[in-house]
């Protein structure tokens, strides 16, 4: 009786999972790790630089730069949640991850993604207020409001993602424990279960459409209102600068959301998509935005750009 109980418990919750990496590209893992590692280093350096410059310059303690710091923090956590383990898979063939370690990684991946989505929405709102209501900018976005917005971004992510853990823990795993991915995420784990995963599918779809989808709608609305205000500017030069800035922001936002939604819907409907294409894109939406955000939001900002150049000149002298 005891041995049967142990077997059933093992079948219900496996002790480990095996992360396969990029399916069909196992022979190229060593070489594929090089660009991923390079982008990870760029993300660490870029976001670390933004945090250092803003934190050490009191003149930059303004809403836009505080939101930029929050974005840099989420970027650092987002890529650091998956890249170190991915690199150990590619270079050291360390494919095994514990059951609880897998759930922890899944929880952080989805929580930080939801948090970053909310931060991008907050930054779009910040730009809307700054351009469309400049006289009320400092009164609307004071330090207290920014703190509450930052807290709300994190809490929202925690509240919507925690049910993923509960939904996974209720599932029995009595087959193989191989995840054809480089990191643990909700549907990738759920598909290994030997029970109905309909609640996982429904809840995941609901969260994606109602939470992340609503963020996309509100961000689009904010930039639409910004562009309408820009078109009313009398100066063509001011219009060009505003279009240039907004265009760069929109490109980064698309890089963040398009691969994410592609990966999400591929799990449910894209059975004809080659697995290696799906997995590569699923990694890009966690890595490319942390690389691009410091360039687009940071270096594209005059005050930060001047301080970076000043810092480089001091280092050179």
TrEMBL record:
A Gene Ontology molecular function term for this protein is: olfactory receptor activity
Top-rank taxon, per record: Eukaryota
Q: Which GO terms describe its cellular component?
A: plasma membrane
| CDD domains assigned | 7tmA_OR52B-like (cd15221)
Coiled-coil ranges (or none)? none
Which keywords describe this protein according to UniProt?
A: Cell membrane, G-protein coupled receptor, Membrane, Olfaction, Receptor, Sensory transduction, Transducer, Transmembrane, Transmembrane helix
Q: Which residues form the G-protein coupled receptors family 1 profile domain?
A: 46-297
Topology in the lipid bilayer is annotated as: Multi-pass membrane protein
Would you identify the family this protein belongs to, as annotated?
Belongs to the G-protein coupled receptor 1 family.
Recorded protein name is Olfactory receptor
